[in-house]
Amino acid sequence: MRDIWIVAENAAWAATLVSAAKSLDQDCAITAFVRGDEAAAKDAVTYGAASAFALPLPAAGLWEDYAPALAEKAKADKPAFILISSSRRGRDLAAKTAALLDAPSFSDAAQLALSGDTFSCGTSVFGGTAVRTASTSAPVVIVTLGAKSYEPAAADASRSGAVATLPYSAGAAKVTERKPREKQSVNLPEATKVVGVGRGFSEEKDLAAARELAAAIGAEVGCSRPIAEFFKWMPEECYVGISGQVLKPQLYVAVGISGQAQHTFGVRDAKVIVSINKDEECLMHQNADYYIVGTWQDAIPAIIKAAKA
Predict the structure, then answer these.
(1) Long-range CB contacts (< 8 A, 24+ apart) of 87-95?
(2) Of 165, 197, 218, which residue sits at a domain end?
(3) For 58-77, what is the mean pLDDT?
């Protein structure tokens, strides 16, 4: 039986990582390391971890400072895999832990597979335009996974397991100040439907039409990178793409989006993609399940009317 570790920034992400671990080895023994107190660690046990450690983070602490403690414990316990949540800090933690263990690390991996002692997975290359299959037979492998890379494991309150705390040891760097971002109502990673807007909208006021469409179909509104970074019409956390939000909704409606690889990487796992663009040859149409050739001024009112009917 293989020992697999999961390292999650919250209990919800732990549920996804438990599913990923089970996909590799249904009979594996899972040890969870969860940011927070022992109550958060106990939640990971309900998702299927055999035992769990709380990783409390001081106000001036950095998430990646847990790398030395994790590496030392891994040297003693010898897990076969360490699966880590793929946030910005999580990727830093994975890289630092891999360096300390001299172990291979795969970022934002997909299609995890195990054949004997050989592990393989898909990793994106060329800005998300292609997926490369990589493999290794190393004794310990570190992998980062997105929040929706696997269906989260169901909680079962009857499950029990040992819970403890892994002490924090501060590194050379420390946090001197935190400035929370202004809270936004949008929660794209959890949305089942998303309307994405792009440069087909020539003025900021025109985005009201996309928001009306989203309200009519029960969706959140995201955007391509230029809308957030260049025009500043929407917050940066709303942009979808390889360096932004990577989504897995049931429905993604791309309005006025050309469909460059940077953007399509962020919605490649959507169950259904609908593209609305007046350019019949645009790349977004080629990546869509359904597309409408026409202006958003014509398409959006028609869809809203149909949705309300």
Answers:
(1) 87/9, 89/9, 89/62, 89/63, 89/64, 90/7, 90/9, 90/63, 90/144, 91/144, 92/63, 92/64, 93/7, 93/63, 93/64, 93/66, 93/67, 94/142, 94/143, 94/144
(2) 165
(3) 94
pLDDT at position 206 is 96
- Rounded Cα distance between 122 and 131, Å, is 6
Domain that holds residue 193: 188-308
139-176, pLDDT tens digit by residue? 999 999 987 788 899 999 999 999 999 999 888 888 88
Same domain, 208 and 285: yes
| Whether residue 59 is found in the same domain as residue 111 | yes
For residues 12-26, give the mean pLDDT.
Answer: 94
Amino acid sitting at position 94: A
Q: Which of 112, 134, 165 delimits the end of a domain?
A: 165
Q: Determine the average pLDDT of the residues in 78-103.
A: 95
Please indicate, yes or no, whether the overall pTM of this predicted structure exceeds 0.85: no
CA distance to 73, 204, 210, 265, per residue, from 254 (Å): 46, 17, 10, 13
pLDDT band, residue 5 (cuts 50/70/90): very high
Judged against a pLDDT cut of 60, whether residue 202 lies above it is answered with: yes
Q: Work out the end-to-end distance of the chain between its first and last CA atoms, rounded to an integer number of angstroms.
A: 55
Q: DSSP state, 239?
A: B
**CATH at residue 158:** 3.40.50.620
Burial class from Cβ neighbours inside 10 Å (0-12, 13-18, 19+) for residue 27 reads exposed
